[in-house]
Amino acid sequence: MKLAAQYIDIGSRAPTVLLNTVDAAELGVHPLDRIQIEYDSRTAIGIVEFTDELVEPGTLGVTRRLGYVTGDVDVIPAPQPNAVHYIKKKLDDIELDKHELHRIVLDIKQDRLSDVELGAYVTGTYTNGLSLEETMYLAECMAEVGDAIQWDDAVVADKHSIGGVAGNRVTPIIVPIVAAAGIKIPKTSSRAVTSPAGTADTMEVLCDVEFSLDEIKEIVTETNGCLVWGGSVNLSPVDDKIIRAETPLSIDPPGQIIASVLSKKKSAGSTHIVIDVPYGEGAKVESLAAARELAEDFKRVGDHLGMHIECTITRGSQPIGRGIGPVLEARDVLDTLAGNGPEELRLKSLRLADILLESCGCGGEAAEILDSGRALATFRDILAAQGGDPDVTVDDLVPGRHELPVAADRAGVVTHVDNRLVSDIARRAGAPRDKAAGMVLHCRVGDEIVPGDPLFTVHAESAEKLTDAERLVDKSEAVRVRSRDEALVERV
């Protein structure tokens, strides 16, 4: 069928084309089918959407993702990509080989899959899981289709946490410790997806986080470390697209977690990595047995990719720092680097840094580097290299002016601080979009509480968002206080 191609200014991640329903019926295609477009001795594949309003019969609406296509074109139905057949196999719980996984990864990278097909892939990996071999091949393929950073150093350090624990902002403390020890640590981090802050959100309070690969190399060459947003570079780009499909259902299959994390570490040129696997009530991994199994698989896949992996299994049943939200977490980071931060944040950062330094051949130095001020000095060097103010202080980081203090209404013991609820309240208050929004915790599990003692304070940049957060506070129990007898029963 001959049609007149017309550019339609509609943003689309996929190479979408718009067909009038009359032309679609003539071609015999359905929504999300594909058509082959031939023009100027070239061929393109578009994913079909129907309309009766945006294009007239005889016209093909072309969105920006497909590229510049105008004039008369020939259009015929096109077959599904091979990746769709392999996704169906995964839905049938049939193990995929390396070639099949590579085809899926390549089609995801090139946006050849519709959102429904990408969702089916995510569903298949969540429902039926990934074998160890599939995870190894998937990580390898995801690393191969992106850019990579090459370093001359034999040892390049890195760190990652699988997440799920509020206020777990250890990365901006570990990176300057390791960098001050003379080891390169090019840390690329994520923004928040379902949490109140990712490392990149927190660092963005203090400096720029979006840099090209060449700029990252310059920063690391100058300071030994960086703390940048991974989404600004093309390291394992398929990972970001898979995460986008996983987010609406809040699913994160173990095999996909491993492939996602290690493909990015491989692309960043990392050789020695410590992986933090928190477990406990409210964390992503709830049992110790599941945490150990995930840690072992991380090591096996790391061996396959030629990387040395150390895994730490940490308790994640309550938040680590006091602050939840970008500004509030940045305050904790500066305080800890200056020797005044939350004790749990300091201890966890030192433990992970020591493990990473020992893995790299210079263990036992973390506390000395932190206490001597060398880590803070290196952190300020990194801030300057990333366009931030190296002289920033905690007093410069002001929480949202709209406050909701929440106090205990009974005496007892704090038996639980719910990671999910804490995160949900901070997000209702505006985090991470509103950098100064979030929550400050005033207690920890095991603390003795009397009526009127402060439990936490919610901060927001607007009164409306504070009201929204207050509604959730009123109908939930983010901090659980029980009498001694009730606390004993809970422990049993």
TrEMBL record:
GO cellular component assignments: cytosol
Enzyme Commission number(s): 2.4.2.57
InterPro entries, per the entry: AMP_phosphorylase, Glycosyl_Trfase_fam3, Glycosyl_Trfase_fam3_N_dom, Glycosyl_Trfase_fam3_N_dom_sf, Nuc_phospho_transferase, PYNP-like_C_sf, PYNP_C, Pyrmidine_PPase_CS
GO biological process: pyrimidine deoxyribonucleoside metabolic process; pyrimidine nucleobase metabolic process
Organism: Halogranum gelatinilyticum
Name of the protein described by the UniProt record: AMP phosphorylase
Pfam families in the record: Glycos_trans_3N (PF02885), Glycos_transf_3 (PF00591), PYNP_C (PF07831)
Keyword Transmembrane helix: no
This protein's UniProt keywords: Glycosyltransferase, Transferase
SUPFAM superfamilies cross-referenced by the UniProt entry: Nucleoside phosphorylase/phosphoribosyltransferase catalytic domain, Nucleoside phosphorylase/phosphoribosyltransferase N-terminal domain, Pyrimidine nucleoside phosphorylase C-terminal domain
Gene3D superfamilies: 1.20.970.50, 2.40.40.20, Nucleoside phosphorylase/phosphoribosyltransferase catalytic domain, Pyrimidine nucleoside phosphorylase-like, C-terminal domain
All copies of domain Pyrimidine nucleoside phosphorylase C-terminal, residue ranges: 413-480
